[in-house]
Write a structure and sequence with these properties.
Helices cover about 30% and strands about 20% of the residues. The protein is an alpha/beta fold. The protein has a single domain, classed as Alpha/Beta hydrolase fold, catalytic domain (Rossmann fold, 3-Layer(aba) Sandwich), CATH 3.40.50. An 8-stranded mixed β-sheet has the order 1-2-4-3-5-6-7-8. The longest helix has 19 residues. It is globular, with a radius of gyration of 18 Å. The N and C termini lie far apart (about 60 Å).
């Protein structure tokens, strides 16, 4: 029994690595710019069916050019057997270059002081504009999740494409409260934050929720007591995280 347990521990990282390889490596090229991304196809894919799309924006620590780091957080949730069977969808993990961020042009929050103007999120927007027009995509069920820097990117992409998404789940993020008016009533939001977060203060999520409510929105918000920045671990463990997201369809408002 002990030998079997040790063997299982040794094989687990290999198994998880092989599972992550189900996310196919791709590139989206616009002129001289390249967006690297990983994509997971729906289980039992049928070209004659339309599937939801779930966009995932990683945090600052996963920036780079290897097209792998962005899968560190969140990918296991989508690879779970139960997730793949119950919530069949396209899952897309783009990767921001190390010298860029998911800020967009319209969000004043500067994650790195040496980044004057973000291009990474604009490439994601162009990619999504094209992808959701595929015949095998349900354009009324497009979702976005982002953590930390990706939480900021979630608010930024909602501001740029308020009519694209049915639901959004920003985790320990921040944004510009002046940019919520065009998506507050249109997108279902579930906001997450750790109450002891010192990296991105929880007050930022309160600020965004308040702005959304003032603009007619109806966000769901969850704060975790005694939790610091890595609130995404607990958010992904919420039993109805994916169920809540997939229950949403785009509002015609």
């Amino acid at each position: 029994m002990m030998i079997f347990r040790h063997l299982l521990i040794l094989l687990l990282p290999v198994f998880l690595f092989s599972q992550k390889n189900l996310f196919e490596k791709k590139e989206f090229i616009v002129k001289s710019d390249t967006l690297k991304y990983r994509i997971l196809a729906p289980l039992d894919y049928d070209e004659n069916k339309k599937y939801p799309v779930h966009l995932f924006l990683h945090g600052a620590g996963e920036r780079g050019g290897d097209n792998e780091l962005q899968l560190i957080h969140g990918s296991e949730l989508f690879l779970k057997k139960s997730s793949r069977e119950k919530f069949k969808s396209w899952v897309i993990f783009p990767q921001s270059p190390e010298n860029d961020w998911w800020g967009g042009h319209y969000d004043p929050y500067k994650f790195d002081y040496d980044v004057r103007k973000s291009n990474a999120l604009n490439l994601v927007v162009l990619f999504m504009d094209k992808f959701i027009n595929r015949k095998d995509v349900d354009s009324n069920r497009v979702y976005v999740t982002g953590l930390s820097m990706g939480g900021m990117g979630t608010y930024a992409i909602l501001a740029q494409r308020p009519d694209m998404f049915a639901a959004a789940t920003p985790i320990c993020g921040d944004g510009n409260p002046n940019n919520v008016s065009n998506f507050a009533k249109k997108v279902a939001l579930w906001i997450f934050h750790g109450s002891l977060d010192k990296t991105v203060l929880p007050q930022h999520s309160l600020k965004m929720a308040d702005a959304i409510i003032k603009n007619g929105g109806n966000p769901r918000i969850t704060f975790y007591e005694n939790v610091y920045h890595n609130s995404w671990d607990i958010a992904f463990a919420e039993k109805d995280f994916l169920k809540w997201i997939h229950s949403k369809t785009k509002k015609n408002e």
